């Protein structure tokens, strides 16, 4: 009778010791972009082209989708 309870306690202790290193980071909020001074904000007219794109202002072309690694959607430079 004592053996199963000892086994259960030791299994619980091993499981607790194993899982103490598991840390889940909270999801970072999406960056918020505001219009620069003197520029009117224009809302997006179509959905984001993919993960990582943010709605940002381009000094020459105006508002568009920008990805930090891939650049501007639809080829803006």
Description:
This is YXWGXW repeat-containing protein. It comes from Variovorax guangxiensis. Keywords: Signal. Residues 1-34 form the signal peptide. Strands 1-2-3 form a three-stranded antiparallel beta sheet, with no helix packed on it. The protein has one helix and three strands; from the N terminus they run H-E-E-E. The model has no long low-confidence stretch (mean pLDDT 80). The protein is an alpha+beta fold. The protein has a domain at 30-77. It has one helix spanning 2-19; strands at residues 54-58, 62-67, 71-72. Helix content is 23%, strand content 17%.
Q: For this entry, what is the oligomeric state of its chains?
A: single chain
Q: Uncertain regions: pLDDT < 50 for 5+ in a row?
A: none
Euclidean distance between termini CA atoms: 75 Å
- Helix proportion: 10-25%
Order of helices and strands: HEEE
């Amino acid at each position: 009778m004592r053996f199963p309870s000892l086994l259960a306690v030791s299994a619980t202790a091993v499981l607790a010791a194993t899982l103490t290193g598991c840390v889940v980071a909270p999801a970072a909020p999406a960056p918020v972009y505001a219009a620069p001074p003197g520029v009117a904000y224009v809302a997006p007219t179509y959905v984001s082209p993919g993960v990582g794109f943010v709605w940002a202002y381009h000094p020459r072309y105006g508002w568009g989708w920008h990805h930090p690694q891939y650049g501007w959607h639809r080829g803006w430079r």
